[in-house]
Specification:
11 strands, single chain, 5-stranded mixed beta sheet, binds 2-acetamido-2-deoxy-beta-D-glucopyranose, Cation-dependent Mannose-6-phosphate Receptor, Chain A, elongated, 4-stranded antiparallel beta sheet, alpha+beta, disordered N terminus, 7 helices
């Protein structure tokens, strides 16, 4: 087939490729600089690149009358205590769904933040407040709750009792003083005693505060295990605690604890655009490299300096022929257009056109070479 129309579209494509590449690289830069600043709770990326998202394992509160989202747990996780004697209730990355009351040694305001607990009678012992700080450590994925009930509660209660007795003894002493004071019946002394009592109270308060600061509180450390079977529901098991009953360890098996590829973030370059960029770069290299080769090695001029000119021109003319055939068959249905009549004249006109263009390009080349 005789090559006819020059592939002008190729040049446009090359230009579009350069423009497209420049445009696509910009959002890429901004997204990498901003994505590191945002930390999503219950989501972690290991240094190895493994990505974990445990949010689907968090039991959620479903408002009354509404349906639970499909696949979301709506009940707290239970872990049997076995020899520990108490069963545990916990949620992952969130407070327990069933609200708790009478939490030992925890402010009332924080009762709704309790993430793990066990019960003795009606008393609730918290193992920590909610947290979404998922930490990957090598092949392990760990979540920790802190700020639970005070450790060694029974010990502390003994302390309190001892303290109370001591206090009583002191007050007894004051009573004695008071007795002797009343004997002297001095008003000033009474006032002094009031002052002293107040000072004592303040001191006690400070002591309490300091105690609060140094008080150890229960915590829960949860280690996650990957379970590839999607049929197995996420389950928690109690591993153990230290002799002081301060640190509690749990193991949770979940399919979401398996390393995943990081999902495509909005704004960054996805696999589709990466492919498009590579494609455009390849086209650009092909066109520019081809032109360079044809000009300097094959010494081609005019449209022939485009790479594989005859091939592309052949494809182009083939498409033109198909178009001609289609339009001519259409023109038979709609005879007024006379499509083939206008096209039948074209070969001569087009080749003359092409010669003119080639001459023009050669002229430009010569001017450029000078
Ligand atoms: C803990 O749970 C198991 C069943 O899961 C039950 O048999 C056992 O009585 C429970 N223990 C306590 C102390 O509630
Ligand atoms: C407790 O939970 C509430 C929301 O339920 C939250 O706003 C608050 O920051 C939490 N407090 C702590 C100490 O985690």
């Amino acid at each position: 087939m005789h090559p006819r129309n020059p592939p002008r579209s190729l040049l446009l494509l090359a230009l579009a490729a350069l423009g497209g590449v420049a445009h696509a690289e910009e959002p890429d830069k901004t997204s990498t600089s901003t994505s590191s600043a945002v930390v999503t709770p219950c989501v972690a990326t290991a240094t190895s690149g493994a990505f974990f998202d445990l949010r689907p394992d968090t039991a959620i509160v479903v408002p009354e009358g509404e349906k639970a989202p499909k696949g979301s747990p709506v009940q707290d996780y239970l872990a049997r205590g076995w020899d520990y004697g108490h069963n545990f209730t916990l949620n992952l990355c969130g407070a327990v769904v069933e609200p708790v009351e009478d939490v030992v040694g925890v402010d009332r305001d924080l009762w709704r933040n309790v993430s793990a607990y066990y019960e003795i009678g009606r008393k609730v012992y918290s193992l920590g407040l909610e947290s979404g700080a998922l930490v990957p450590r090598g092949r392990k994925l760990v979540l920790q709750y802190t700020g639970g009930s005070p450790c060694g509660e029974s010990e502390k209660e003994k302390d309190k009792r001892a303290f109370g007795v001591h206090e009583g003894a002191r007050y007894k002493g004051y009573d004695d003083d008071e007795d002797s004071g009343s004997r002297h019946s001095s008003k000033d002394k009474d006032e002094d005693e009031d002052d002293e009592k107040e000072k004592d109270k303040e001191k006690e308060k400070e002591k309490e505060k300091e105690k609060e600061k140094t008080m150890r509180r229960k915590s829960a450390t949860i280690s996650f295990l990957c379970d590839h079977d999607p049929e197995t529901p996420t389950a928690a098991s109690f591993v153990g605690t230290d002799p002081e009953e301060c640190a509690y360890f749990f193991e949770v098996r979940s399919q979401h604890a398996c390393a995943m590829a990081e999902p495509h973030k909005p704004g960054s370059v996805g696999p589709g655009s990466v492919f498009a960029i590579i494609f455009f770069i390849a086209v650009a290299v092909y066109v520019l490299g081809g032109v360079f080769y044809q000009r300097n090695v094959a010494h081609a001029r005019g449209w022939r300096q485009l790479p594989n000119y005859s091939l592309w021109a052949g494809i182009w003319s083939f498409l033109v022929d198909i178009f001609t055939i289609l339009t001519s068959s259409c023109s038979r249905i709609i005879p007024r257009r006379r499509g083939y009549h206008t096209l039948s004249r074209s070969p001569n006109g087009r080749s003359r056109n092409r010669d003119d263009e080639n001459r023009l390009i050669d002229q430009l080349d010569e001017e450029w070479d000078d």
